[in-house]
Amino acid sequence: MTLPTVSTNDPTPFLWAVLPIGAYLVGSFPTAHLLARSRGVDLGSVGSRSYGATNLGRTLGRGWGFACFLIDAMKGAIPVLGAGLLLNTLGATPGSFSPQTAWCWLAVAAAAIVGHTLSPWIRFKGGKGVAAGFGALAAMWPILTIPALLALTIWVVVLALFRMVSLASMVAAVSVPCSVIVSALTANGLEGVRAAVPFLIASGLIAAFVVFKHRANIARIRSGAEPKVGQKKPAEKPAQTQTSAPTEKRT
């Protein structure tokens, strides 16, 4: 199967500048921070101190965490969908547009994820990029949509087996570049893999970034201290007062 003709309509320098900056600003919206503040909680001083959906869910409840995940996913999806419309890449296949266009589209996705993890509104802190990354990748229809949905399925399975959100997130992120290779090989063999190189590199870098952001979780997993879903915190033992034994009076 031959690949379609490559479009020569490369993005202009203006789009190269404006689209990633706009994506960064959209991604930087501090969802978890604002939701926590609405309940009088400083998310940076509780739990893992991460400004993401997982820490918010542990602090305020699963409903809050789920709502935050949806909003953060939209932060990644909206800029990518908008850029896809402007670049005429939505619905296209790898190789039907130039590598320059592919990298520009991927730069938008990366900027949204970086904005989520390094938000200027909360002293360049943020979440770990999982929700925004899922939204950004899923919005790249159809090139990365299926790998992103497969990653979500893997996330659910790993979470059900091990009950650790961090582990599920890392495994799901690593599955995306693997899925890109398989889908490209299935569609067009080695020629398809060559056409999908920008998306393979970008998804690999995003996976590495997600794993890097979870480095503290990795240390806790190795030591057996990583919290699990549904696990109750151990009750604090009351402080014991030490009483000194009566001293004998010597005569």
Task: Give the SSE layout.
Elements (H helix, E strand, L loop, with lengths): L12 H15 L3 H7 L15 H8 L1 H26 L11 H19 L12 H9 L6 H18 L2 H31 L1 H17 L1 H9 L28
Helix pairs in contact: 1-4, 1-5, 2-3, 3-4, 4-5, 4-6, 5-6, 5-9, 6-7, 7-8, 8-9
Describe the structure.
With 251 residues, this protein is an all-alpha fold. The chain has one domain (13-223). 63% of the residues lie in helices and 0% in strands. The protein contains 10 helices and no strands. The protein has helices spanning 13-27, 31-37, 53-60, 62-87, 99-117, 130-138, 145-162, 165-195, 197-213, 215-223. The model is unreliable at 1-5, 234-245 and 247-251 (pLDDT under 50).
Summarize the structure.
With 251 residues, the chain is mainly α. The protein has helices at residues 13-27, 31-37, 53-60, 62-87, 99-117, 130-138, 145-162, 165-195, 197-213, 215-223.
Broad shape: globular
Order of helices and strands: HHHHHHHHHH
How many DSSP-defined strands?
Answer: 0
* Helical content (DSSP H or I, runs of 4+): 55-70%
On the 0 to 100 scale, the average pLDDT is: 89
What is the radius of gyration computed over CA atoms, rounded to a whole number of angstroms?
A: 23 Å
What is the domain total for the residues? 1
**How many helices?**
10
Low-confidence runs of at least 5 consecutive residues: 1-5, 234-245, 247-251
N- to C-terminal distance? 106 Å
